[in-house]
Amino acid sequence: MEPGGVGVTLTPGEVLDPVNDLIERFSSVMLVAASSLGLQIVLLKITSSWVVTALLISVLAIWLGTLWFQGLQDNKYGALALRLSIMLVFIRFAIPVVIICTNFLFSTFLLSDQESATAALEGTSARIEEINVQFEDGSDSDKASESVDTPSRMKRAAQEWFTGVGDWFDSISVSGRIEQLKESAAEATSHIVNLIVIFVLQTILFPLGFLWILVEVLKAAASKSISALSAARS
Q1: Which of 79, 116, 212, 228 is most buried per CB count within 10 Å?
Q2: CA 21 to CA 86: how far, in whole Å?
């Protein structure tokens, strides 16, 4: 479009290019988030299988058996059975605990923000689409008016005068639409960034954080238990 006859071409795409670039980044984040969720589902299926459960029960039974028959003194296999038991407990329950804790934090602190950002982004997308339709309608009407040819000089002069006045009003309208597009683009950018933060927290940072905490807790428990066995043997 050329508002006001000043020869400056303005299109909605130029205003929305930064939003399009951000949407591409958001798509990459969504791919990583979906991959993380898929990996958690696969690991949950593997660790909750009957094989892992049977191994855990067997190792625990062996550890309890060594304690029962040999006691804490001169227990050669107690420490090894204890290490295997803790490792299998971690394998069996780590992913479920991580998922439960992550879902709790998400539903408590992030769910409302995600729903509001998604609803606001949908509303912003609808407004941008409406403005785009207005741009297309205005462009079509300008092309139709340019196709009118009047043979009379007076009519041509009047037509040019009306066209100039119409372009002046159109320039005001186009400026308003451009400002609306800028505001809508800024709102969309803010909502997309919020969604990126939420998905990164939910699918990457929270699971890794809870997994690290669980590892440290089990390491501390194993160290204390093995120390207690060593002290009892001595």
Answers
A1: 79
A2: 47
Local structure of residue 7 (DSSP, 8 states):
-
DSSP codes, 153-176:
HHHHHHHHHHHHHHHHHHHHHHHH
The tokens for 135 are 């741009």
CA-based max dimension of the chain: 117
d(CA 172, CA 4): 8
**pLDDT at residue 169 greater than cutoff 70:** no
pLDDT band at 189 (very low <50, low <70, confident <90, very high): confident
Residue type, 197: V
Q: Residue 60: pLDDT above 80?
A: yes
Could you tell me how far CA 124 lies from the centroid of its own chain? 18
* Gap between the Cα atoms of 179 and 167, Å rounded: 18
Distances (CA, A) of 114 to 26, 69, 183, 192, 196: 14, 57, 21, 10, 10
Alpha carbon distance 174, 134 (integer Å): 9
Mean pLDDT for the stretch of residues 166-170 = 51
CA–CA separation, 215 and 227 (whole Å): 18
pLDDT of residue 4: 39
